[in-house]
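Incident log, structure service

09:12 report received: a user says their structure output differs between two submissions of the same chain.
09:20 pulled the input from the user's history:
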Amino acid sequence: MGLIKTYFMPNDYVQSVFQIDIEKLANSGFKGIITDLDNTLVGWDVKTPTKEIQEWFKKANDLGLTITIVSNNNEKRVSGFSKDLDVDFIFKARKPMGRAFKKAIQHMNIKPEETIVIGDQMLTDVLGGNNNGLYTIMVVPVKKTDGFLTRLNRIIERRLLNYFKRKGYITWEEN
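09:34 re-ran on a clean worker, output below:
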C-alpha cells in the first residue's frame, strides 16, 4: 500500500479552496498554483467566476502566487472562465498525464517544488501532481453531479479515501 499512498494521497484534504491557507503556503516558499476548474473552483455548470473566486484569485495574486488553470475540459469552457480572472490556462490537459503540469510550471517560471496543485479528483489532479513531485491539495467537489468518466473515477476514489481514513491518513470528514 506504500505506492498507493505515494501516488494517490494528497498532501492536504479540505472542504473547499476557501479553506486553504494560501498566505501560509506563500510564506512557505510556494510561488505558483495549478488549479483544476470544474467542481474545484465552481460547479461544472457555472460559466463565470463567482465574486468569492475572484477575491480568492486576487488574494493569491497579492501574495505573489501565480495561478494557472489546468483542465481536461474544452477550450471554450476553460478560456471563457479564465479570461475574467486574467490567468493563463491549459485546456484538454489529459490529466493525470504530466505534460500539462510541466507546461504550466514552465509558463509560471517556477520550480516543481514551488508548485501547488489543487483539484477535486484523486485520479487526475492528485495523481498527476504527486507523480510530478508537486504539493497536492484535494478539495471536496463543489457539486455532487459529474460526467460519466468522472463518476467511474469517483467509485475508485471513494475506496481510496475510505482506506486513507481507516489508516488515519485523512481525518477530516465530509458533510
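09:41 both user submissions now match this output. Likely a transient worker issue. Closing.
09:42 reviewer note: The CA atoms of residues 106 and 170 lie 31 Å apart. Helices lie at 2-8, 22-27, 51-62, 75-83, 99-108, 122-131, 148-166.
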